[in-house]
Amino acid sequence: MNSLYNNALKQSHALQKDLDKFQSGQDASAGLQGQISASFNALQRSIDDYDNLAKRELIPVKKETALARVAKFRQDLQEMKVRFEATKKQQETQKLEQSRDSLLRRPNRGANAPEHPYQPLSRDEFALREQSFARNTDSQLDDFIGQAQNLLENLTDQHSILKKTQKKILDTANHLGLSQNVIRYIERRSAQDKWIFYGGMIITVLCLWAIVHFIG
Questions:
Q1: Which of 48, 126, 169, 187 is in Cβ range 3.0-4.6 Å of 121 for a Cys bridge?
Q2: Which are the contacts of 112, defined by CB distance < 8 A and separation ≥ 6?
Q3: What is the C-alpha separation between 147 and 145, in angstroms, rounded?
Q4: Which of 91, 89, 93 is nearest to 25 (CA)?
Q5: What distance in Å separates the CA atoms of residue 78 and residue 55, rounded to the nearest whole number?
Q6: If DSSP codes are grouped into helix, strand and coil, which group holds residue 82?
Q7: What is the mean pLDDT of the chain?
Q8: Residue 50 in contact with residue 66, Cβ under 8 Å?
Q9: What is the dihedral of CA 118, 121, 126, 130, to 10 degrees?
Q10: Where are the beta strands (DSSP E) in the chain?
Q11: Among the listed residues 104, 105, 135, 155, the one whose alpha carbon sits nearest the alpha carbon of residue 29
């Protein structure tokens, strides 16, 4: 159970750092926002797993401590979600205001406007626009790859937790003298979880390869 607690604590601290970076404006990219959303889901799963083990704890003192930690985790998670949504709304409002100010500052050409406003771009203007498009594409690729890497790390963390949990369950089952059928059932479920993990990892790697191969 301590491993689950330490993992949830690690995820919570990492999430706090990402939120600080996002709120300060140091990084407001879509990639970081996707990473934060994925981290919310991963932390929620870790808290639920820890909560389930805490409820099955036989020692009253340990059970009470674990449940108190679960409550603190849930409170922190809710506060971080509220903070994230508030920051997103604030940044969206700022972008709208900047766009409005930009439109208002545009000069009114009036009678001096050309008869054909859609003039072809010069070579320099076309090159600048092409460079800007390339930079935006590279930035989006980095965002996609960052999200995929974060999902892969979350899958790896979950796999490690499942392995540790399986070992503890089997040890407890042997200690309590459960039947071999029950133990074999637990092992089958663990094997299914392992295949799910490998499948998720393969899909993530294929997505990364497709992004780099077809878009990069």
A1: 126
A2: none
A3: 5
A4: 91
A5: 21
A6: helix
A7: 77
A8: yes
A9: 10
A10: none
A11: 135
Alpha-carbon span 30 to 176, nearest angstrom: 50
Residues in the chain: 216
**Cα 118 off chain centre by:** 43
Query: pTM of the prediction?
Result: 0.48
Question: Nearest 5°: phi and psi at 26?
Answer: -65, -35
What local confidence, expressed as pLDDT, does residue 125 receive? 66
Write out the two tokens for 37. 């959303």
Q: Measured between alpha carbons, how far is residue 99 from residues 18, 109, 211, 214 in Å?
A: 27, 19, 31, 33
CB–CB of 204/146 below 8 Å?
no
126 HSE (CA, 13 A, CB side):
5
Residue 114 pLDDT more than 90? Answer: no
Note the pLDDT of residue 97. 80
Mean pLDDT, to the nearest integer, of 96-105? 73
CB-CB neighbours of 175 under 10 Å: 8
Place of tokens 């003039």: 119
Tell me what the mean pLDDT of segment 98-110 comes to: 64
CA atoms 158, 160, 162, 164: torsion sign: negative
Q: Is 215 exposed, middle or buried (0-12, 13-18, 19+ CB in 10 A)?
A: exposed
